[in-house]
Write a structure and sequence with these properties.
The complex is a heterodimer of chains A (799) and B (178). With 799 residues, chain A is of the alpha+beta class. Helices cover 29% and strands 25% of the residues of chain A. Chain B has 2 domains: 5-80, Beta-grasp domain (Ubiquitin-like (UB roll), Roll), CATH 3.10.20; 86-172, DNA polymerase, domain 1. In chain B, 35% of the residues lie in helices and 17% in strands. In chain B, strands 2-1-5-3-4 form a 5-stranded mixed beta sheet, covered by helices on one side. Chain B has a two-stranded antiparallel ribbon with strand order 6-7. The chains are: A alpha+beta (799), B alpha+beta (178).
């Protein structure tokens, strides 16, 4: 097969621009005001629930949710609920015309439970009523006869931590015959031999919590029945094409009868990856059955039990190093808790597996990862997707190893990190931009690491300070998880204005701005000529999901391709109009268009566009990009799992109060190698915002259950996220631009990478502040809540 | 059916006479009766701060306020911060400092900032943080919002309260600013 044209375009533009400094571009790397900033400061109705304003005579849909975490359903009686004032109809599993399933990757999750419930949150019926209030009242009247089954809240009840074999228990997914969802492994080199020859071995057990996304906008969906039997849905979702698939399945309709539009999202972070399927399918079911617009709006509490969490992890790690500080081998057994349904659970532990040895040269590795069902709120996608969990363990291990070797943590890392020309643990040759060494050195310099380390070690008294470093890497896009493509449409209108549509969404991250900057740079027109339309499955080709830090690189490439093709056509027409020597000599600096050697003689952008319309030169283009194929060998854990990696180094400084165990982050430094800074505002907001969210993960965020499986902290007074009072007094941000030849202008993703290394850098700083060598082994779990830290302080009598 | 209460409210300068059930929350009156969707509901428990509006100049959670209890009050939401066609200095400052991400929390932060600057035109860093702690932002824009408050305070001290929305749009909308 010949190489696709889109690859040629992306690579040739990289070649042409790789020596251009970022500040030499006109729009790339600049600070540009977001397209929706004015709408957002004026409170325009832009979120899904706000659009109820535009709907007449809606039906409100409320889910009746399970009161048991694990039980068989003997019967569901809706008679009383249906008689309640304002109730139009109560839907149960038998009312679903298509397939009763909203599972994201595998079909294991009924939209309305039929014969059993698997967590407190499963939907057992849907109330459709004239008002939200009536619907909520009536939900209390649905009578479900349950036969309770044993409730499993600890993944180690399902699987043995030593052997990783499934234990005897009452199956949660009896239909699957096992509660082990997935297993992955890496087998490289000879671990036993390496451990025998090692001078230093460090082993420990690590735990990370199920983190809640806590995006501020609870989910909502509005479904409007169409006259031809189709349905149009506005839903909070990161992935409109996945919503379309789910709704089509549930309703038994072909894809083209289901149109999904994604309005602005009030945060997503991965949590809005699959819950959108659920709210949209529920609204669509009711809308089509009752022939009226149907609305689902979640409360905070319902949102918290309805959408997935970050997978909790428990991991045993063993590392070996030589006396001179070379990493020799890694062994790990990792158990992840996927909760009641798979969601993204088949993929999250795969990413964890790929990254399970960190950004280091490792020649001997034996890694086993197992993901198991429990009766908790399902775990799925959350910024980082399995990677923050394993990086926490690996980066703590690195500090313990350095300590045992008597080396500085930075020096030890510099001896072992991945560089250009190295191979990853999977055998993948890193043949382009690996900016990790530069990132680490710059983070050390910006934070004045050595100076502060010395200073903090000399401090005495109640409040101690510590400084910690972590490095990270993160495979871009979805890799070997599946078909990896993206698309955009660019339409240059006859007045010269440009309609831009991407199939990937904005959940606040601003990456659609990056796309416009790419198109603006290629076309030579200012970003303000563009209008960004909401993603709409009826108007743009399937773009894949908005996940995995893939928008800037994948949709960015699709944008680059579309803009490049348009530019070629525009250049040809302009050459004729202006008499340039060659199309390559055409300079577009809209509103001016001229030949390179004669800027005085120009035509306007609008004239050029008009001429294209007269000549029949089409000024609309779909851009498409398919990532190079990834490769993964299940037996050995080798291959080319991702086409490129983002690298980063994080330094955190903390204060630990020895009398209370309270930890405060006082300063932070992050340096990421993102290939090329495209959207400077967005990149900095990610570095800062990812840090603050990672700080919540490190210090305060965890979910708690009652013994019968009820998630207890459903609100912000019980689930604490960082407030402005928790922010460090300073966050230093810098970027390394080590250029990826298949990224747009060399760019790589930053959405998820910005959280991956934060928690371990903070934990390393806490361990540094505690100073006691044995105590450091106990800094092996997050969140580092005051009571957890205080227990370590007391146990080791640190004064 | 519960007794309906007659309530007079002045919302963003306009008089309304409403008949509401005794348990109706102000947030629902504003969003669903008056269509003021700039008032956001993030939690419904007075914890996230995205629904904060000014009632007689005081910042209040509209999700914890019963409409029937504030008869005769004056309510200001983000939609009423500036006259038609204008933007308030606080709104301009929030755009200019570049911290806006998902934007769900932004109306809450702006209304709290208004209440703060009405009381104290030159707040210290500590005062700014203490006031802004009443609103949560999960995207982590806090440092930028702090700068926005300071910038807004500066505008107001210079007597620049309202800006033409058209001019702001021409100057800033999708424009290179640095």
């Amino acid at each position: 097969m010949s190489r696709p044209e889109y690859l040629e375009i992306v690579e040739s533009i990289f070649e042409k621009t790789k020596h251009v400094r970022t500040d030499e571009f006109k729009y790339i790397g600049k600070r540009v005001v977001r397209w929706d900033a004015i709408s957002k400061v004026t409170g325009q109705p832009i979120f899904a629930a706000d659009l109820v304003k535009l709907v007449k005579n809606p039906v409100y849909v409320v889910s009746v949710r399970s009161k048991y975490a694990h039980a068989l359903i003997k019967s569901v009686n809706v008679a009383d609920a249906e008689k309640y004032p304002g109730v139009i109809k109560v839907f149960t599993a038998k009312d679903i015309p298509g397939i009763n399933d909203i599972g994201y990757v595998i079909p294991d999750q009924p939209m309305i439970a039929n014969y059993k419930v698997r967590y407190i949150g499963d939907t057992v019926a849907l109330i459709a009523a004239e008002s939200l209030e009536n619907a909520r009242d009536a939900a209390e009247l649905v009578v479900v006869d349950y036969e309770p089954l044993p409730v499993y809240l600890d993944p180690l009840q399902i699987v043995d931590f030593e052997t990783l074999q499934e234990k005897e228990h009452v199956l949660i997914h009896d239909e699957r015959g096992t509660d082990i969802l997935t297993r992955y492994r890496i087998r490289v080199g000879n671990v036993e031999k390496a451990f025998k020859e090692a001078s230093v071995i460090v082993e420990n057990v690590y735990k990370t919590p199920a983190q809640e996304h806590a995006y501020l906008e609870p989910e909502a969906a509005i479904a409007i029945p169409e006259p031809d039997g189709g349905v149009t849905i506005y839903a909070k979702t990161q992935c409109p094409f996945d919503v379309r698939r789910a709704v089509s399945n549930v309703l038994g309709l072909p894809y083209h009868m289901v149109r999904v539009i994604a309005p602005a999202l009030g945060g997503g972070f991965g949590g809005a990856e699959d819950v959108g399927n659920e709210v949209a399918a529920k609204a669509a079911l009711v809308a089509l059955a009752l022939k009226r617009p149907a609305v689902v709006i979640h409360t905070r509490e319902e949102s918290t039990i309805a959408h997935t969490k970050r997978h909790a992890m428990i991991a045993y790690y063993k590392h070996a190093a030589s006396r001179d500080g070379r990493l020799l081998a890694v062994e790990a057994r990792i158990v992840m808790d996927t909760g009641a349904y798979a969601s993204l659970g088949p993929f999250v532990p795969w990413r964890a597996t790929v990254h399970s040895t960190g950004p280091y040269r490792v020649e001997n590795a034996k890694i086993d990862v197992v993901n198991v069902y429990t009766n908790k709120v399902p775990a799925g996608a959350f910024r980082g997707f399995g990677n923050p969990q394993v990086h926490f363990a690996v980066e703590r291990q690195m500090d313990l190893l350095a300590e045992e070797l008597g080396m500085d943590p930075v020096e030890f890392r510099l001896k072992n990190i991945l560089r250009n020309g190295d191979r990853t643990v999977h055998g993948q040759l890193l043949d382009h931009g690996v900016g990790l060494e530069e990132a680490l050195k710059r983070a050390v310099e910006l934070s004045r690491y050595y100076e502060k380390k010395k200073l903090y070690e000399s401090m005495t008294g109640r409040v101690r300070r510590g400084i910690g470093v972590a490095v990270m890497y993160h495979g871009n896009s979805i890799g070997a998880e599946g078909a990896d493509y993206s698309a955009v449409s660019i339409i240059i209108n006859r007045d010269g204005s440009i309609t831009f549509r991407s199939g990937t969404t904005d959940m606040g991250q601003g990456s659609l701005m990056s796309l416009v900057l790419i198109a603006a740079e290629v076309l030579g027109v200012p970003p303000s000529y563009f209008r960004i339309e909401p993603p709409d499955t009826a108007s743009v080709p399937d773009s894949g999901p908005t996940v995995a830090s893939r928008v800037t690189v994948m949709t960015g490439n699709a944008t680059l391709v579309a803009a490049y093709k348009l530019r070629q056509r525009l250049n040809t027409v302009a050459t004729k109009m202006l008499g340039c020597k060659s199309p390559d000599d055409v300079v577009i600096e809209a509103p001016k268009v001229y030949c390179k050697d004669n800027p005085e003689k120009y035509i306007t952008w609008r004239e050029l566009v008009e001429q294209c319309f007269w000549e029949g030169v089409p000024l609309q283009e779909y851009g498409y990009f398919r990532a190079p194929r990834a490769e993964w060998h299940d037996e050995t854990g080798t291959g080319q799992p991702y086409f490129t990696y983002t690298f980063g180094a994080i330094v955190s400084e903390v204060e630990v109060d020895l009398d209370t165990g309270v930890v405060r982050v006082i300063e932070a430094t992050t340096v990421y190698d993102i290939g090329r800074v495209i959207n400077r505002v967005g990149a900095e907001l990610h570095a800062v915002g990812g840090y603050i969210q990672g700080m919540g993960y490190a210090l305060m965020e965890d979910t708690y259950y009652s013994p019968d499986g009820r998630l207890l902290n459903l609100s912000f007074s019980t689930y604490h996220i960082p407030t402005i009072l928790d922010e460090p007094s300073r966050i230093n941000v810098d970027f390394v631009e080590a250029g990826y030849f298949r990224g747009p202008f060399g760019a790589k993703g930053l959405g998820e990478p910005s959280i991956v290394g934060v928690a371990p850098s903070i934990a390393n700083a806490v361990a540094h502040a505690l100073r006691d060598k044995r105590a450091k082994y106990d800094v092996n779990a997050i969140p580092l809540t005051p009571d957890f830290v205080y227990k370590i302080i007391r146990k080791h009598k640190i004064e | 059916m519960p007794t309906l209460h007659k309530v007079k409210l002045k919302v963003n300068g306009r008089e309304f006479e409403l008949e509401v059930p005794p348990h109706e929350r102000l947030i629902d009156t504003l969003r669903y009766r008056l269509g003021l969707m700039g008032v956001k509901e993030g939690c419904g428990r007075g914890e996230c701060g995205t629904c904060i509006v000014l009632i007689n100049g005081e910042p209040r959670h509209s999700c914890l306020t019963l409409t029937a209890r504030i008869d005769g009050s004056e309510v200001q939401t983000i939609e009423g911060l500036a006259p038609e066609g204008m933007l308030h200095a606080i709104q301009v400052a929030f755009i200019e400092t570049g911290g806006i991400q998902c934007g769900f929390c932004t109306p809450g932060f702006i209304m709290v900032t208004k209440a703060l600057l009405d009381r104290n035109p030159s707040p210290s860093d500590e005062e700014i943080r203490e006031w802004l702690t009443s609103v949560l932002c999960r995207c982590g824009s806090y440092p930028y919002y702090e700068l926005a408050v300071k910038r807004a305070a500066e505008y107001l001290r210079q007597g620049k309260v309202y800006f033409s929305e058209k001019e702001v749009r021409e100057k800033l909308h999708m424009k290179v600013v640095g």
